[in-house]
What does this fold into?
Amino acid sequence: MSFSNLLLNCNRDLTMSLSIKYLDEANVREISGWNYDAPYDYYNLNPDEIEQNTHYFLNPQNNFYGIFEESRKFIGYCSFGEDGQVPGGDYSTPALDIGMGICPNLTGQGRGCYYVAAVLDFAQQMFDPPIVRVTIAAFNQRALQVWYRVGFHTVDNFEHQYQGVPFVILVRENERVLKDYRKCQMAT
It folds into this structure.
């Protein structure tokens, strides 16, 4: 059964079909305009760097993808690889690093588990990593709780090498998405 079909039945109040596809320039320009409220404004991109951001997000070596609802509505992005690492963290253990961003007007609504499960399923299919890792700003308790809920655990705490912001590194041995789905279902 596909991930999308699993999610269609996950909750009467939250029915969505998610897909992950390559980003295009319009998606990246949309990301550049996203404005998060404090304290999440840490994630806002510099509006004076739209061209640099577009080039970075669209560079195939950076492994950025879009998250789409109902196959067409762009709702977020994810990355796989070094982009998910933060300067100052210990990344000596081999793992697939995942970065992720969701449209600001969709955050804080209890959907994070579904977005994470879709990204983990995609990572399993595309990269089949033995270990997956995320690095999250310590103030972002909403994101931390979602990743903990799907089986991640903390392996390191550190401060950003240049900005002094505290971060948390979490890891998990990669498992099939069905377990992620069940945890989402139990949490709702």
